[in-house]
Amino acid sequence: MPEDEYDVRGRHDDAIEERSAHGEPLGQKIALFSAILATIGAIISFLGGHTQNDALYYKNEAVLMKARASDSWSYYQAEDMKRHLAEAVARLSPVATGDDAVAATTYATRARALRAKAEDYDRRSEQADNESRHALRPHVKLSIAMTFVQVGIALASISALTRRRWLLWGAGGCAAIGVGLSVIAWF
């Protein structure tokens, strides 16, 4: 007697078919929620990287200006030493010529210009350093926000696997905290 001709169906077979025909609404919601969180995470990550790049640019500028200031201060000191030597020679020389006094004046004029240039480089270095600190300020909050978004994605994935809706609420809470922190980072 051929037993293969009869298909005996159980309630679980009907439930599986119904689920596959209508789809899993929770699974679809979780997939959509995870995709949205991944997009938000990509935006937050981009903004965090952008703040780092700006901070590095300004820090680089600060170092460059500090090096130029150091060079200018060295030139200033050299000119000032030449001025002191010319003045000493003019005072101590038994045969006083006007050349030493003129040289001292020339060195003093150059030294004043070099000092102003060095002070300007110092000021510009400090400005660039302040810009660097200002550009990096939102980075920490953006990093924490990205962490919360990633935790939200992980909780949503666990919710899909375990079919526990309360985990999805936790994922939503983490996502809300992450988005809130990323908004706060810019104010």
From TrEMBL:
The keyword Protein biosynthesis does not apply. Residues 1-22 are annotated as: Disordered. InterPro entries: DUF4337. Coiled coil: none annotated. Pfam families: DUF4337. The chain crosses the membrane at residues 30-49, 166-186. Keywords: Membrane, Transmembrane, Transmembrane helix. It comes from the Bacteria. Residues 7-22 have a biased composition (Basic and acidic residues). This is DUF4337 domain-containing protein. It comes from Sphingomonas mollis.
